[in-house]
Specification:
Layout (H helix, E strand, L loop, with lengths): L26 H4 L3 H4 L8 H21 L10 E4 L6 H6 L5 E7 L7 H6 L3 E5 L12 E7 L1 H4 L6 H11 E12 H13 L2 E7 L8 E8 L14
Parallel strand pairs: 1-2, 1-4, 2-3, 4-5
Antiparallel strand pairs: 5-7, 6-7
Length: about 230
């Protein structure tokens, strides 16, 4: 179990508080965690955290221009498949929803502790394996760089079938990845009867990273139902 436990940063003085002094929620969401400011996570500084937080606020604002019901209350159970520092969830913060932040076991940096420090919920998972959906499935799934991350580990088809299983009918997915990856994903989910819309990066069409919005259709054999991204 020791490998799965996220320890507090070590203290050097008797008066120091392990993990730093907690800020009240929701102020904790955007405050630099003590775990980062103390240098406990190699390669992640105060500036890195603040830049990431700012970037995801920008990304989420762009998402809402395409999917206008993200914060309407329709999506209550949300999952971020590659949560990083948890900034996507922090940018979405609303009493109408909650986000399960997943830290892939093959991620370059283990930042699950930062997610906890921000007052968010999170879990480790290998997306080459099934994800436990007890006690609920999800209304919206965010997949940032997931398919590039796992391209040498398991097939995109296997990951997409697992996403289809844990996503509710008429639920939505936001894929963020390189254009060649998203073209492959778009073809596969089309065969799964998902509706899709591919859009440029918010910084313009010259950026190779694109966004694919998808909706899992509610359908039965013999019917031609559809639900396009709103």
């Amino acid at each position: 179990m020791e490998a799965c436990v996220t320890p507090y940063p070590k203290t050097t003085e008797p008066a120091e508080v392990a993990g730093g002094v907690w800020k009240p929620f929701p102020e904790r969401l955007n405050a630099v965690p003590f775990r980062i400011s103390s240098g406990s996570i190699p390669g992640v500084s105060d500036e890195t955290f603040q830049e990431d937080d700012k970037l995801w606020k920008k990304h989420v604002k762009a998402y809402k221009r395409t999917n206008k019901i993200i914060d309407s209350g329709r999506y209550r159970n949300i999952m971020d498949m590659n949560a990083g520092l948890g900034s996507f969830a922090a940018a979405l913060e609303s009493p109408k929803l909650w986000v399960m932040n997943v830290m892939p076991t093959i991620a370059e940096k283990d930042t699950l502790g930062v997610i906890y420090d921000r007052g968010l919920i999170g879990i480790y998972h290998d997306w080459c394996e099934a994800f436990s959906t007890y006690p609920r499935t999800y209304d919206l799934i965010h997949a940032n760089g997931v398919f590039s991350l796992y391209k040498n580990s398991c097939s995109a088809e296997d990951i997409l079938l697992e996403m289809d299983r844990i996503l509710r009918p008429e639920g939505a997915v936001i894929f963020r990845d390189q254009i060649d990856v998203l073209i492959k994903v778009k073809k596969i989910v089309g065969g799964m009867r998902w509706n899709t819309k591919l859009v440029d990066h918010e910084d313009g069409p010259l950026v190779s990273e694109k966004i694919l919005f998808a909706v899992k259709r509610y359908w039965v054999v013999g019917e031609n139902n559809s639900a396009a991204p709103q």
